[in-house]
Amino acid sequence: MSDIIGLAASAAGGGVFGLVGTVIGRVAGLIERRQDNTQERARWAHDAAMQEARMREMAAATEAQIKLADAAGAWRGLAASMEAEAAIGDSYRWVNAVRALTRPLLTLLLWIITGLVYLGASAEARMGIVETATFAATAATLWWFGDRGVKGR
Fold this sequence. Notes:
By secondary structure, this protein is an all-alpha fold. Helices cover 91% and strands 0% of the residues. Helix 2 packs antiparallel against helix 3. It is rod-shaped and about 140 Å long. The mean pLDDT is 80.
């Protein structure tokens, strides 16, 4: 009988150890899975952050290209204007004198109009009108007279 009890105790002990081993294996698998999930979430967060950084970089590069294209277009327009002015060539002295006085007279007229608008506008409308007229008059003055640099003729 003691053999049977010993055999039963061995079977029971082996069964308990087997169950404990299974539970420990399952708990260890669960812990590993949680760690894997944590690592995956961290990797996904890193990938998302990298993608956002790439998108910001691409947006900044596109914006820089747009600004460069705008500046290049403005310079091409100025160059075309200067080439057109140079292509006119010489004419009679009085024609050259009238052409030389056109820009200064238009500039003076533009500044007079700006002053009259300022004096005649109501207080509410004065700021918007004056800002627009001042922008136009300043741009015209600087462009017209800035274009009159020494030409290699």
